What does this fold into?
Amino acid sequence: MKFNIFNDEDRGQVGIGTLIVFIAMVLVAAIAAGVLVNTAGFLQESAEQTGQQAQSEVSDRLTVVNTYTEIDSGSTDKVNITVRRASGADNINLSAATVQWISDSGQGQQLVGDAGADQVLVKNEEGTTLSGTQIVNNSSKYVLEIDLSNAAFNDASLNSGDEGTLIITTSSGATTRVEVAIPENIEDDTVFL
It folds into this structure.
């Protein structure tokens, strides 16, 4: 004689219970997968934005072609920097750039092309003052005329033997450093720095 602990009704209830547990596990797994896919998409978007910003900070910068000044009576208060767009850089809006001056006598900062203060002017190679300038190709050159004697640069001037650093920062955050040093024995003339 066979003893069956479960009758037919009990066997059906066990099957339904197992099915309910199985469906619940599938639903939990589906929700977890949805959350993971959503999180992965968000992380990918954040990583792409960070990568683009990092690339802009490195590549969207200016290349210095030359730096010169006019010496008068052994000193100067203006520095001219000829710049162009660096290789691989996107368009650069010079009007959104800043110039920072750092020297032993102090430091200061000014926007490029700030018409109200006229401290950092943008000129083309012919010497015409421009406003709202964008560098759109690598062959275009522009001169940044920096007047250190204005209040934004703490009324700085350069005498023979003086030195300082100009830091040009584009709107993307890329920086270009220019070391400026006036030779000890200098005559009144145009001097390339």
